[in-house]
Amino acid sequence: MVITNTAVTYGNKFVLMTNQSSVKQTQLLPLSEQHLDSVWRIEQAAHSHPWSETMVRDLNSRGACHYAMVVNDEIVGYFFAQNIVGEVTLLNIAVDPKEQGKGYGKALIEHFLDVCEKAKAESAWLEVRESNHNAFGLYEWIGFNEVDRRRNYYPTKQGKEDAIIMSYIFF
After folding, report:
1. Quick one: which of 50, 101, 114, 119 is 20 to 30 A from 158 by CA?
2. pTM, rounded to two decimals
């Protein structure tokens, strides 16, 4: 069976429809304390080397721009970003592994770029593990470009791997 998803956006809300006649109410909300237990659970499940719980729970960092994706009252993903003088860095993004492959990652990155544009950012930056081919492909498809690499930056079970540095320039 092939499932085709269609998303319609209304500000910070969008409706995801599938060919199975299901409709999912989806919101992208600024991260708050009430979201953090779910975000911490997803952080541990989605990343081989997750952030510390202290980092996840710090919502008041300089330039903080953090959002949760809520689908039918459940957190399915999130991103942490930082806006410093018009340069926005995507620090962390994840979708619950049980919810991956449903278009939520694409919706999160598109919302991240919308937030950047509304803040009149000049550029957006991110780093992605070289082994994360799905994320790299999505970022390229959205319009990010590889600009450099941090050699042996991320820890792995076998040692280290490169971080691919990508940018998106707003015109």
Report:
1. 101
2. 0.85
